[in-house]
Amino acid sequence: MRLLIIEDDRDAADYLAKAFREVGHVADLAADGEEGLAHALDGQYDVLIVDRMLPKLDGLAVIGTLRSKGIETPALILSALGQVDDRVKGLRAGGDDYLPKPYSFSELLARTEALARRRGSREETVYRVGDLELDRLSHQVTRAGGSSRDPDHAARERVGLSFRPANQRHRRAHLAAALEDRQGFHPGFAAYGSRRRVYDPRQQMTSSLPAARRATCGGEG
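-> structure tokens emitted (221 positions)
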């Protein structure tokens, strides 16, 4: 999954991003409502995790604006306001789920995955090339209808953006920027690093495919 976490508490945001990345998902961060709205309008996300009480633009206003523009990305609201009336207001504002604080990450993860599955029932989540299939939500790879294989966590973490939506290409500049942000690469090594870290997991997943079914497009991935 690719997630957008809109949370003004930096420690809480960093914790959530780290936790989601450790289980193989991609997490972007926004520190206030205006920034979060801009990201949600420009990016392709499977689920939005939105804190209700945000600076500049509160979480319900962010979700309401997205819905008014026809953007139906599932949104899970996090809030210290957990009374029944608060939850009802959040859901009626366009939220798809509402989780009061404090919460356990295991429950948040399960709810987020459930929202992604619901969206996945309306969108293509399995990509096919020849007899190779990749499930973007489960991270499973199968070939010729055989047994599924989950690329190891290290491989997923190295490529980072492996399971982004199909209409988003992995441009080398984007990969390099992600690598520098996540692993502290010096810009001078980013180009080589991005090639290597895309090559390794791709080899793990497709090493048995005929060469004609594997291709690298210069500057694209």
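Helices lie at 10-22, 33-42, 59-68, 84-92, 105-120, 153-159, 172-183, 187-206.
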